[in-house]
Every structure is written in structure tokens, then in C-alpha cells.
Amino acid sequence: MNFVHLKQLVVVTCLVIASNYAFSQAVLPTSNNFDDPTPNGWTESLQGGNFRYAGGQVGESCRLDQTNDNVSVFIGDVSGPVTYYIKGQGSVPSGPDTFNIQESVDGNTWTTMRQLTINDINNTDYVQYTDQPAITSRYIRWHFKRKQSGRNIALDEIEIAEAPPSNEQEITVLFNGNGAPNNTTVVVGNNASSTIRVENVGLADTLNVSDISFSGAAAGDFSISGVSTPFSVLAQSYIDVTLDFSAGANGTRTATMVISNNDFNGDETSYTLDLIGIGGNYATEPAQQPTSLNITNVKSYTMDLEYTSASPAPENYIVLRKKGSTVTEVPADGSTYSPGDWVGGAKVMYVGSGTSFTPKEIIANTQFHFAVFSFNGPNGYENYLTSSPLIGNATTPDGNVQSYYSGIPASNPNLLTLLHQRLAQGYNQIYYSNYASTILRDFVERDTTGGDKVINCVYTNYAYIFSDNFSYDVLSREHTYPHSWMDTWPDDQGVEYSDLHNLFPAHQNSANAVRSNLPLGEVVDTTSTFMEGTYGKDINGLNVYEPRDEHKGDAARAIFYMATRYNGTGGNWGLPDPISFTVDYGQDQALLKKWHYQDPPSNWEIARNDYIESKQGNRNPFIDSIYYACYINFLDMTYIASPGMESPCYVSSVAENNIEQLSIYPNPTAGNFAMSVTLKQHEDATLRISDLAGRMVYERMKYLSAGRNTVLTQNINLAEGIYMVQLIGEKETVTEKLIVK
Q: Are 454 and 548 in contact (CB under 8 A)?
């Protein structure tokens, strides 16, 4: 039996339904403290990624650091006062920077309520501001209109109040106890009845509801009971109306409900809600899958996916991915997935209505398979089209060395000078403050279950899980070659301090602070452990820090890079010995080289090297070749002409006819091919491919060991034709013909 409730109105807390059809507007009052997940109706458009300052007015604050960065909110009613806190971050600025607080009726044309120039913004303390939007405004945003200085903006503790009640009648609607702003969608699901609460928040005048009508495809499935129209709602009171749903067929049933009333402001006299009902258990299954999967921009660390929308278009798509084999898994009807969830052995990479995206977790020399499925329905009612998904795959290259080290063989006595010059050439400093917005966001962070993201501490493998936004409250930017080892200590503004090749995420308290500026080593007498990281004494009784095995080679190569990159810039850039007055011993070079040889670069490390080159403009040569380290004494940064027998680089000399065999397969090829190369002794060699006109189309340096080597060549994209493949050694060149058809 349905009842009409007419009561004195009390304060109601409005919650938001979580679904694919969640309300697009924020229900007033609304707030954003930038500590919790982004509230409904709020959007962060931050080019540097969604990340935070740890020291906010309370908790964390939002960081805006580029021109056009903004935070906006779409509100569902007339706004009361808007309060917020702002603080400048970074260097004392000079320049025409401007930061605007704006309002809009439609989200397209903006009016500035307040403009702050760079000189207006306090760089020491958070300052609170209050603005009052116009009664017609439904959008508010905080917009970094122009940034040209080193000053960033920290924005925190935004609160948007309800407009204070007036004597005139004002309508507000709740759906099953949750705020339902005008012109939004609510999910009825397969519930036979729901409650529509019509409130009058005015102080004196009566709200008159003249009609509640339904239109749309399944209008006949919906009706009201328990009250007849017209009806009246006294000031500060409400009436509950029962919304009845009886599905005329299985699947998605949609209609539009309009509550006609005499709202005083006139903007909500036709209060409209779009209704989503479900006949049976699931939404209507889509008719078609998308088509024409196109995978482009394939690099060792990224790729882009694009596909053509199905016709008719579904409400959403879900993309699954596997490494090395075709996706055979299918999503389950009625299950809600987020990027990072698993469907059997396949990982969810994307969920949404778009037809293009850039997947995360791309590493070198790996084949990635994708399957794209159409689906309809809100959370809990999803219906996936599982037959004949759109599939495709792409294989990432095994690094982007190409001719980067051309003319720098390891056997050159001027190796150190040549490497230093090459690594300094084209260097583009990525500021320390932009570490999170570049390599962490673009490459390191991964999606994980529950819609969260995760970044692992490289020393301990601790998994730092966060929701929408990253902040440095647990992890830090660890200098593998410690800051105090740098000849420029304590300067933290130079390029060496922010060099991406040297920075890794690490647990601040349990790894970074424990390691401090100690040398890396192998612990035999443990003082403390945190997961896979260990602190204690080595075989010589010296305090050292031992990272997990998977990171030992990575750490060694980062230290080698720093010593080589900044060697020749003044002072000592080798391995300090002693490190300090309190650490009166140095870093064991032999141990680092052992780690370097035993833990060769992984596909992740190779991809990271390529990513850093794309941003910073230089590479780590010790990732590209294990042999360079053999020829360098990192204690005094001198050249080793003849590596000892313990080194993998040991040879008596490179002989004539060192290249015993070169073969190409398949040949002819449709694209990718491999080479089998057999050498008597290891040496540096260059792989060069030229067309019959003599134009070089590909060149890459290779470091080949004694014996048989398999050299893979992928994503070169050679056109049909005949090519000459040359393997150029130190004393000879071997040529083979390649046919592409």
C-alpha cells in the first residue's frame, strides 16, 4: 500500500547513486577537500595529471601547475557562498600569471568572479576567499588562465553552500533518499517501486505541483501512485510520491518524467528526470561490436588504440588485454569492472564510451593482445556482447637505441669523454617538481582492482595504492646516486638533482630514510627489514642497504649513469670513498658491476629508458649495453683498456673474421624478421639496412656476445622491395640481401 507523507521538513543528507548513470551534477551543499575521491559533479582538468600537494590547508591540496589547468563543478541548483583556500607554491615569481575564479550558465561562456595576479597570491600561508555566484550560474571553476613563472597554485577546502532559503517556493527532489538534480538520470533498475520525494525548501509560500507526466520509449512502464496531481507542498515540507515500474519487456526501458510546478525562480518549473528501468536482470544487449581496431604510436613504453564505433552505438565499451596470447576471456553480465580489474587471465584496460585510449603498463619487447566488447547498462545491470569481440595485437620494440652511440665503441680509449658529451647533448631538464606529472603518471603507475592505482617502491616492492590522485605522503623520489654524493651538494636546483635516470619511487620512511646516503651492498648481519629491502652489515662489517634482487641491476646502472653523465662537469663524480665523516667508507664498485651483469635490463627498464629519452632527451648507456661498464673504473672515472678475466668483456683482441655466420629468417618476409649471428668473440657491431638506392632506412648499435646471438627486428615498417642488411663490426662488414613482400 502506498502512502502520502506530509511532514515538517528536516535537514536531509543527500547521497549520490554510484553507477554509470551517476548524476552529472553536484547536489548542494557540495565540497571538495582533495583528500577523498573526486565528488560527483566535479572535474579536474590537470595537464600534469591528477596529483596533490601533501601540505594543504587540511590534509592534501590540489596542484595546478600549467596554463589552463582547472577544477570545475556542475551544480544542480542556485548556489550560496563559495569558499576556498589558495596558496602559491614554488619560486617567487615574476611574470603576468593570472588565476581566475569563474562562473557560467552553460559551461561554455565564462564570467570572472575574481581574478588573482601572481602578486596577489600568498606564497607562505593559505588564504581563504569567498565569492557569490549569480542565481543563474550552474558551473563554477578555478582556472589557471596563464602561467609563465615558476609559481604553482595549491587549491584546497572548497565549499559551495546552498542558497539561503527565501519566502518564495523552491522545489528540490530526492530519489530513494538521494539528491536528484533537475535534468539528470536516475536508475530505477528492476525495482517495482521507488520513492520520489518532492520538497519545498521555501520559508513561506506553497509549492504547487500541477502534473507528473511520462514520455519516451517506455513511458507506459512507469506511473505514480499514492498521490494524485495536482497537489501542494507547504513551506519547509515534503510529499513522498511512489514511482511504480512494470517492465513491458526484458532489457533497458527508458522514459522521461516531468514534474510541472510553480518554482519561484522559474528555472525548475518543468523538473525533469530521465529514468532507466531494467526488465529482467540485465540491460538490452548491444547489437554490434566495434570495428577496425587500429594500434598506432607503438613504442617500447606506449601505444594508442582506436576503433570505429559499433552501429548502432552501445552505451559503453570494455577493453581486455593479455600478454603473449589471444584474449579468450569474456566479461560477465551484471558485473561492474574498472581498469585494473581482472577477468580470468585478462586485465581490464579501459571502460567507457570513447573509441580511443592509451593503455598503461606498456613495456619493451612484448606482444600485447586486446579484445574490445560492446555493452549496455548501469552498474549491476550490464549486458555484454561477448560473441566475436574486436581483437588485435601489437608487439613493442626492444628499445630505441638506433644510432645513438654511433662512433662510441667500448674499445675507444676516449669512452668516458665521448659518453659524457653524448649524454649531455640535447638534455632537457625535467624539474624535480614534475616527477609525478611525467614518469610516475605516464609510465610507472598502474591500474589495480577497485578502480585504484598502484606504484611500487623499487627497493622493497611495497605497493602504494591510491584512488584518484597521487601525493608524496608515503612514497618519495629516491636519488639512487644520493644527493650528498653529488659534487654540487647541497644545491637542489641543478639538472643533476632532477635527472630522471636517477630517480625512483621509494617508501620514504621504511626505505629512503633507512638507506639515507649509505652505499648499496649485500647484508649478512641484518639490523632491520621492510618487505624485500634490508639494512644491516655486509661481510666487512660495514652498514649497507640491500634492495630487492629485481632492482639491484637497475640501481647499479643508475649510479653508473650519474657518474658518467656528470663526469667532467667539475669535482669528483665517481663513487665517493669515504662517503662522509660518519660513513667513512665508500661504495663497492665490484659489487655494483656484479649486480649489473647478473641482473640485466628487464623489458620494464628498457621501456623506462626510452620514455626518459622522449622527455629528457638522453639515454642511460648502461641499460643499452652491459659492456660499457667493463671499461670504466667508477672510483676515479678512468678508462680500463683491458677488462680482467672476471669481466664478461674479457677478450684478448677482436680478430679479423670474428663474424662467423649471419643469416636472416624468414627471408622473404612480410615485415618483421630475425637474424642469427655467430661471433668468435664479443664485440660492438652496427646493424644497418639500406635500400637498393643506398639510402639508409634503419641503423642500430648492437652488443653481441661470443657464440650465437639472435637479433630481433620489429616495427621497422619496411615497404616492399629489396634491401641490403649489413652487420658492421670493428674490423669487418658482412652483408646479406633481404626481400620484403
A: no
